[in-house]
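Single Protein Entry

Contents — chain, fold
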Amino acid sequence: MVVFEATIKNIKAELVKGEKFMVSGELQQPFAAYAYCYNHKQLYSLLGYLPSMEFNKWLALNFGV
């Protein structure tokens, strides 16, 4: 639950703060772009400074996970 709450906090701070969306559909494209960046571009120190998707590929190759 803590990870979920931290993720929501990040989304609010980085994506929606200061923006006004009239309907939820207006948020879909910006959120998709944010999610892509979060999973494919952002580096995480706990994952050896790899993006989460690259770390998952590394796990699968090295440990069959």
